Amino acid sequence: MKAIIVGAGVMGASTAWGLAREGHHVDLFEQAALPNPLASSIDEHRLIRHPYGDHAGYARMIDPAFAAWDLLWGDLGCKLYAATGTLALTGNGADWAERSARTLAAIGRPMTELTIGELRRRFPLLDARGVERAFWLDTGGVLFAQDIVATLARHLGKQPNVRLHANTRVGAVDPEHGRVTTADGTTHEADIVVVAAGAWVGRLLPHTAARLVPSRQIVIYFRLPEDQCAVWAKGPMIIEKTGDVGLYLVPPMEGRGFKVGDHEFSRAGDPDTGREAREEEIQPLLERCRNLFKGFDAWRTDRLKVCFYTVTEDERFVVEKTGAKGWVMSPCSGHGFKFGALMGLELARTIASERDPLQHARWAAGLEGE
Ligand SMILES: Cc1cc2nc3c(=O)[nH]c(=O)nc-3n(C[C@H](O)[C@H](O)[C@H](O)COP(=O)(O)OP(=O)(O)OC[C@H]3O[C@@H](n4cnc5c(N)ncnc54)[C@H](O)[C@@H]3O)c2cc1C
User: S-S: 11 plus which of 25, 42, 196, 236, CB 3.0-4.6 Å?
Assistant: First the structure.
């Protein structure tokens, strides 16, 4: 079988990997350099963790996601992941951590609740004011996102059955007939076309534009004094909801940066423009950090990065058949990277085996077992 994949972020590249390792032929088109620094997948890190609020379907997918990453590490010959454990905090009426703990207990992976005293003892750089409940899980960690995509692209480039087309924008897709036309007017045909175009997907498949909405997000990289940095380099990742801003913290594992972001959707922006963050946009996040972390006054902003989510109304993934020979693949809403290898392998299996596309879409939407 021959497949065309549009977009070489983690989703397109992983699907190419899944198809190629089963012997299929793949043409992978990327509009920019490979990897594209403006892609959602291209940042130093992305988190993987079991706690998933009420979403049992996604919580259940985490173990298979880890297994898919392990398969990828085997093929790449290196592991681009560091374990940190997961600390989830709530207060101020928010109950995401409690709901996560309930869901995980129900699927046999209970979290440990820490008393506020234990929290203070175990994580001395955390100011526990405002935290009402804290839950810990040994699993979870940091995926070295941009290194993963770049290493995977190099791996794909060495496969005899994969052709990489960097700096080749696809201008039009015909999912009914399995055709794409690149910006220079060349037409390519295949048995199947997968559109994994991230925040640009609505331009290629206009019928998805109302459902898959680009959402401009800002993350802050901080420089910390050495002594603080050494403590944070042991973890944990933190998912926190005790104030108005829901915050996540990515510890500086294996020499990568120390990053804080929030999960509030902007539902605005154009992925081709507006990559400069404005000072006022980060004030609420800075304020939250000031209240939550001891020693914050010594932190310095190193750099800001503007990145795009592609969000759906219910934050579920869209991986759906479109036309006789097309698939749209958008596992995002700001939480897709952790499933990148799994989404790629599974879509490759469905495409090659003629597994029921509707069942695949349900699984990808996290609806199985909910
Ligand atoms: C700030 C931020 C924090 C996040 N944190 C996490 C996290 O902690 N954990 C987690 O699991 N997920 C997280 N995510 C989400 C995750 O990064 C995304 O879900 C995932 O990277 C989406 O990958 P993708 O391949 O669909 O899109 P992308 O990485 O954007 O890839 C799409 C590619 O398609 C290319 N393309 C587009 N149009 C065309 C065209 N016409 N022709 C050719 N190529 C084209 C683009 O150039 C791009 O390279 C976060 C996202 C952001 C932005």
Answer: 196
